[in-house]
Specification:
By secondary structure, the protein is α+β, with helices and mostly antiparallel strands. Helices cover about 35% and strands about 20% of the residues. It is built from 14 helices and 18 strands. Helix 1 crosses helix 4 (about 130-145), helix 2 (about 15-30) packs antiparallel against helix 4 (about 130-145) and helix 12 packs across helix 14 (about 445-460). The chain is globular and about 80 Å long.
Length: about 450
């Protein structure tokens, strides 16, 4: 049951939404890309803008925190509700992906634009919308009650898009000894637009670079072709051994530890709405490539590992003539599911590749990352509170889903806080184009998410 206090806070969030959209848009104008080669000053400006927003809504303790050589984060606290009230840690991040091909954007990536109910701009969804979600839901309580009904710690990171490599150091340095009852991580997506979702599992990731060398130097393809190895062709054949004709991973032993879906998960997946044509439209593929059912889709995403070749390179496009190249390079990744050990997976993958190197060639392998999968039980009472709040905010019952992405900081934060439950929510949807051109957030879903979190604060 919604209390009068919570209802007043929700109504304020609704009335205030145009101003929330303006502040989010201002944040999107800052090109806070954390990747090497981009201006780090933009991260400073972004962190300061986030801190200013949190101070303005009424948070009593807000600081921009820095570690040597690390992009700035923002940490805010309001523990005035008292020790007899629960504490939530709210997470989001203010760094963004590179804009990629600016010519493909329908509007400039850092000039936010509202079209057909969506706000377009780099970071509009991932994850500056998460910052807006936290700020607006907190502001609703400050404005109507004068204080929060529970204790809150807000962490807005500045390096999530480049791997959160310093997050644990940040937590140790600035949040050592902090206790929280649960974590709300606003960096996920709903199953579809208008369908509130709690993410309860994440895939892990093993990413590696491989370089195959077949010649000492490039050679004239007319003079030498047919007598010396073709390195590019050899790399293509080598990578092709990683899967069978159906696209299943063919590395011996890599599937041995995969945990099958439970009967409960299968029932949940069966209940999810799924239309192959709709899914194909979201993915940008033909309907013939779509899974046949929601169960098949979810099993492929959350209970079967997936191998992808992210990039292949040899020579420079437009600058390579009729030559046989000396070496070829590729980046590949395996998305892990619960039960798989990332170090073991990396060893099996490298062993398979080395065993299939063509005679006379050499292969070097560099493992870039080896992050485990993550999953959580939903029996903690916080999940019941979250489900009720999402149902009220969205006007329909939420669903429990997995996420195909890898988010290592989830495990880092929950472990640091003693294994507390993590509520993974978000305002992205399959149409948001996170990490791609024309990124956007659905404004209707953003408002519903704000309402849900406002109500969650009042129900704890």
């Amino acid at each position: 049951m919604i209390t009068p206090e919570a209802d007043a806070a929700r109504n304020h969030a609704i009335d205030r939404f145009p101003e929330t959209l303006r502040e989010l848009s201002d944040l999107v104008t800052i090109p806070s890309c954390s990747f090497p080669g981009f201006d780090p000053e933009a991260l400073e400006r972004s962190a300061q803008a986030v801190a200013t927003w949190l101070r303005r809504i009424g948070m009593p303790s807000v600081e921009v925190v820095r570690l040597p050589g690390v992009h700035p984060a923002v940490i805010a606290r309001d523990l005035s509700a008292g020790s007899d009230r629960p504490t939530l840690l709210l997470y989001a991040h203010h760094d963004v992906q590179p804009p990629l091909r600016t010519a493909v954007w329908n509007s400039p990536p850092f000039q936010p634009s509202v079209r057909e109910g969506r706000l377009y701009g780099r970071g509009a969804a991932d994850d500056k919308a998460g910052i807006a979600l936290h700020a607006a839901s907190l502001e609703a309580w400050y404005a109507t009650r004068g204080s929060l009904p529970l204790n809150v710690i807000v962490v807005i990171e500045g390096e999530e898009e480049i791997g959160s490599d310093h997050l644990e150091q940040l937590l140790e340095t600035h949040l050592d000894g902090v206790r929280a009852d649960a974590v709300v991580i606003a960096d996920l997506a709903n199953y579809d637009t208008g369908i509130p979702s709690l993410t309860v599992s994440l895939r892990g990731l093993v990413a590696m670079e491989v370089e195959l060398r077949g010649l000492e130097r490039p050679l004239h393809s007319g003079v030498w072709g047919g007598t010396v190895p073709d390195t590019n062709l050899a790399l293509a054949k080598l990578l092709a051994t990683l899967t069978d004709e159906a696209g299943n991973i063919a590395v011996e032993g890599i599937l041995d530890d995969v945990e099958p879906a439970t009967e409960g998960e299968l029932r949940d997946w069966q209940s999810l709405p799924f239309d192959p044509a709709h899914w194909a439209s979201q993915a940008g593929v033909s309907v013939e490539a779509a899974p046949e059912s929601s169960v098949q889709l979810c099993e492929r995403l959350w209970r079967k590992p997936a191998l992808s070749i992210n990039a292949i390179h040899s020579g420079n496009r437009g600058e390579t003539g009729n030559v046989l190249m000396d070496l070829a390079w590729a980046r590949l990744g395996v998305r892990l599911v619960p039960g798989m050990d990332p170090q073991k997976t990396a060893r099996l993958l490298e062993s398979h590749l080395q065993a299939h190197v063509p005679r006379g060639m050499t292969l070097s392998v560099k493992t870039e990352s080896a992050a485990p999968a993550w999953s959580t039980s939903t029996t903690d009472p916080w999940f019941d509170l979250a489900r009720r709040a999402l149902a009220e905010g969205y006007g329909r019952e939420p669903v429990a889903i997995g996420c195909g992405a890898s988010i290592p900081f989830v495990e880092a934060i929950t472990r640091r806080l003693g294994g507390v439950p993590a509520l993974l929510v978000g305002v992205e949807d399959p149409w948001c184009n996170a990490h791609s051109e024309n990124e956007s957030v659905h404004l209707g879903d953003l408002l519903k998410a704000i309402q849900s979190q406002t109500l969650l604060f009042g129900s704890a």
